[in-house]
Amino acid sequence: RRRFNRNFRTGWSLMIKLEGTVLNVFTQQGGKDKKTGDQFADRDKVQILGAMDLPNGDVKNELFTLSVENYRDFSDFLNQKISIAVGAMASGRNVIFYVAKGAQPELAKTV
Questions:
Q1: Are 40 and 31 in contact (CB under 8 A)?
Q2: Rounded to the nearest 5 degrees, what angle is found at the Cα of 59, between the Cα atoms of 25 and 51?
Q3: End-to-end CA distance of the chain
Q4: For a pLDDT cut of 70, what percent of the chain falls above it?
Q5: Where are the alpha helices (DSSP H) in 30-101?
Q6: 3-state SS class at 6
Q7: Whole-number Å distance between alpha carbons of 10 and 98
Q8: Rounded to whole angstroms, how far apart are CA atoms 15 and 98?
Q9: Residue 40 pLDDT more than 70?
Q10: Nearest by Cα to 43 from 29, 24, 63
Q11: Pairing mode of beta strands 81-91, 11-28
């Protein structure tokens, strides 16, 4: 059973487990917001290649780029399949994924 949390500003929010292969870890350089002029700091990122099952039985590969607290938590898992708790929320017609606060990557169990 899935639990849904209603977030009135952006739509539905859902916590799920994301499994995929860690392809890259990096730090995105900070800068200045063009609209507001506010400065923002560097952000650590991880790129995970996951596979999504489609309703017709096909599989779609998708690259997820996620902000993380510390990319070093993922660097030992490069080119390995991991599992990580993520949140997903709807924003218009898009789904936004984010790493759950305090979540740590684990090697995915093979079956």
A1: yes
A2: 20
A3: 22
A4: 86
A5: 72-75
A6: strand
A7: 14
A8: 9
A9: yes
A10: 29
A11: antiparallel
